[in-house]
Amino acid sequence: MNDKLKIGIMLGSTRAGRVSPQVGEWVLKKSQDTGEASYELIDIKDYQLPLLGEGKSDGIKRFKDKLNSLDGFVFIVCEYNHGLSGALKNALDHAREEWYHKAAGIVSYGSAGGVRAAEQLRLSLGELNVADIRTQVFFSLFDDFKDNQFTPRSVHLDNLQQLFKDVNKWASALKQVR
Ligand SMILES: Cc1cc2nc3c(=O)[nH]c(=O)nc-3n(C[C@H](O)[C@H](O)[C@H](O)COP(=O)(O)O)c2cc1C
Q1: How many percent of the chain have pLDDT more than 70?
Q2: pTM exceeding 0.85
């Protein structure tokens, strides 16, 4: 049980021109300070997941294997039409037990901080036995981005550190449950 926790920072968008990699990279950089867990970026685009049930891809098994290797998640969540991106919902739907009894934090962005998409994600996480922590970091498209470049305000840093602490704590506790 001395192994470091493994937490995946999951990019929630796959479209050309997306900003989620910028947000995910920044979160990854800040996570290096926690020391308790090892964080890595997971880009669902890399797995080329077909729409559920509409095709075969070796990416499906690779995605499930990756989920199996993780103790928790930080979801990088954008908001499309007041909800989750189809890509992230499809990725959630592709696995089941692989998600179970793990912890998650949410970092969202949008015109209203992406909070509507984040709340929608929490509903699905409940069904997947993922314990989502309360602390959330939400970025404004107006104040934390300039010309599509991510320029986060320092005011978010305390919240992000709290998110890491909570995810690590719950991921550690749920490791015992699994
Ligand atoms: C199809 C679509 C729908 C969108 N709907 C919303 C919305 O309802 N609320 C919002 O705050 N932003 C909305 N946006 C703006 C996105 O939040 C913004 O483009 C963000 O950068 C998307 O994340 P991504 O770049 O990682 O794909 C929408 C963008 C797209 C492409």
Answers
A1: 98
A2: yes
* Cβ contact 74:167 at 8 Å: yes
Average of pLDDT values for 53-74? Answer: 97
Question: C-alpha distances in angstroms, 126 versus 29, 73, 103, 148?
Answer: 28, 14, 11, 32
Closest-CA residue to 91 (of 125, 40, 115): 125
Whether residue 20 has its Cβ less than 6 Å from ligand 1: yes
Output the CA 85–ligand 1 centroid distance in Å.
Answer: 9
The pLDDT tens digits of the residues spanning 112-168 come to 999 999 999 999 999 999 999 999 999 999 999 999 999 999 999 999 999 999 999
CA distances from 147 to 58, 66, 82, 158, 161 (A): 37, 34, 22, 25, 27
Cα–Cα distance measured from residue 37 to residue 175, given in angstroms and rounded to the nearest whole number = 13
What the chain holds in terms of domains, given with CATH numbers, is 5-177 (3.40.50.360)
Return the closest-CA partner of residue 31 out of 75, 74, 77: 74
Ligand 1 atom nearest residue 79's Cα: 17
